[in-house]
Specification:
single chain, Beta-Lactamase, Rossmann fold, Helicase, Ruva Protein, domain 3, 5-stranded antiparallel beta sheet, 5-stranded parallel beta sheet, 19 helices, elongated, binds adenosine-5'-triphosphate, binds magnesium ion
């Protein structure tokens, strides 16, 4: 007791004022220190707690659910563990605790618990889970909900066709698929296409982004919770149970902590889940498609992705190439999106100009197909009713590389800006030649072929118009 008091005294000032709740007990479980933050978290007063035994204060606590009792027994620290319990006043508290044994000259003299209040987060999480559960059973098959299939995947380049061929092969089995590709390359489209063309298509496709929610909630969401468990009071099936017979798409799986990755691996190996706080093993038949937006091997190297889990989820490895690596698909993607937005935005756009396409071919597209699609949507919004060709003039400013001169058939009113017809035609000729040169990346032979001019004639005109 004496040794413990010395220890507490030395730390008292610091511990009294920190934001985390601090609770120190001696080896018998009697409280010797209890700070302000802990008072706020638990709704208790220091004088009510001091000198009392844990069993009196927290009637629900056992070694099973109390980190502080566990540490006194095992003499080993516990880091960041969630704990939910009813306190002395009957209030339900959720905390994330780190609890350490205190030794003096090799003898255990007590334990210190450092707690962060999670009550609000946990309550909110419960509400989100309730809501998600109410929405989920209908969502995969819900009438009118857009689902994707291979027909939605646009692209003809060899790199892209290779990915499609592999994905089609994946529809014939239930093996795990790991899709890797940068943001916006179409990973979710691939995942859905595989599901909706597999024999599981009449069962749910359930997608969960692992980066979108906090770790403890993700665990409950995936595996479900059991009545009386530490995270709440309800019996709730997790996504594994909800996707039974179908496919579970785990997006950004690398955001999962190694601890949760280990739990996931166990489920995948044994084909059953145990709800959080539950004791029953529930058999599940779920196909796993996961996605990462970084090279999986470098994720392993950095210690972010567990190697054992990687081997289990990477039975079929599907790489989706960046748009930059398949630039030749840009024109056909633009065409597809124009047709799509003609419908939804009620426009009548026929095509994109060559100069615009040439500019788009040159652009970096770090956001890949998603960025291209967004570009087409914003350009469509810039197009007037009487215009039918998308040009540089409709580009959002961040992409813009100057004004495009639109040929006479497209915009008659443009003529008014020129002194004479011949000046206008020269202007047009220059714009068209410039467009074709850009389209062919300065290749004079190809541009002259498309323009129906001899090489020499084209070179002459390039000199006249000062084009390079
Ligand atoms: N090959 C394609 N053909 C047609 N549309 C595509 C193609 N690839 C992607 N898209 C479209 O691009 C957008 C982004 O696709 P998706 O959500 O599948 O990307 P992602 O790889 O999952 O991105 P993130 O990593 O950011 O989640 C979607 O609107 C999708 O319809
Ligand atoms: Mg995605």
């Amino acid at each position: 007791m004496k040794q413990c008091e010395i220890l507490v005294d030395a730390s008292r000032d610091i511990l009294s004022n920190i934001e985390e709740g601090v609770h120190i007990v001696d080896v018998a479980g009697i409280t010797v220190f209890y700070n302000r933050a802990m008072e706020v978290i638990e709704g208790l007063r220091e004088e009510m707690v001091m000198g009392r035994h844990l069993e009196d204060l927290y009637p629900e606590w056992t070694e099973m659910n109390s980190t502080i009792l566990t540490v006194l027994k095992t003499r080993r620290e516990i880091i960041n563990q969630e704990q939910t319990y009813v306190n002395f006043n009957g209030k339900r508290i959720s905390t994330v605790n780190s609890t350490y044994p205190i030794f003096h000259e090799g003898t255990l003299v007590g334990a210190v618990e450092i707690a962060r209040d999670q009550t609000v987060v946990t309550d909110m999480s419960q509400k989100i889970m309730d809501l998600q559960q109410r929405l989920l059973p209908e969502s995969p098959k819900k009438e009118g909900k857009k689902t994707y299939s291979f027909e939605s995947l646009v692209g003809r380049t060899p790199e892209f066709l290779k990915a499609i061929a592999l994905a089609r092969r994946a529809t014939r089995s239930s093996s795990s698929v790991l899709i890797d590709g940068d943001t916006g390359t179409g990973k979710e489209l691939f995942a859905q296409s595989i599901h909706y063309e597999s024999k599981r298509k009449h069962k749910p496709f359930v997608a969960q982004n692992c980066a979108a929610i906090p770790e403890t909630l993700l665990e409950s969401l995936l595996f479900g919770t059991s009545k009386g468990s530490f995270t709440g009071a309800m019996d709730r099936p997790g996504l594994f149970e909800q996707a039974d017979g179908g496919t579970l798409f785990l997006d950004e799986i690398n955001s999962m902590s190694p601890h949760l990755q280990a739990k996931l691996l166990r489920v995948l190996q044994e084909n059953y889940v145990r709800r959080v706080g539950g004791s029953k093993d529930i058999p599940v038949d779920v196909r796993i498609i996961s996605a990462v937006n970084e090279d999986p091997l470098s994720l392993i190297e950095k210690g972010i992705l567990r190697k054992d889990l990687y081997y289990r989820i990477n039975v079929i490895a599907l790489h989706v190439p960046n748009l930059k690596e398949r630039r030749e698909d840009i024109p056909i993607l633009v065409d597809t999106f124009i047709r799509e937005f003609n419908q939804t935005l009620d426009k009548d756009v026929w095509m994109a100009s060559d100069l615009l396409i040439a500019t788009l071919l040159d652009y970096d597209w770090v956001g890949n197909v998603r960025e291209l699609k967004n570009f087409v949507e914003s350009a469509m919004n810039m197009i007037d009713e009487e215009e039918h060709v998308m040009t540089l003039n409709h580009m959002p400013s961040y992409l813009s590389r100057g004004e495009e001169i639109v040929p006479v058939t497209w915009r008659v009113d443009h003529l008014k800006e020129f002194e004479s017809l011949s000046a206008y035609l020269k202007h047009q000729e220059k714009a068209i030649i410039q467009g074709y040169l850009k389209f062919h990346r300065g290749n004079i032979s190809r541009a002259s072929e498309d323009l129906g001019l001899s090489r020499q004639n084209l070179q002459y005109k390039m000199r006249v118009y000062d084009l390079k």
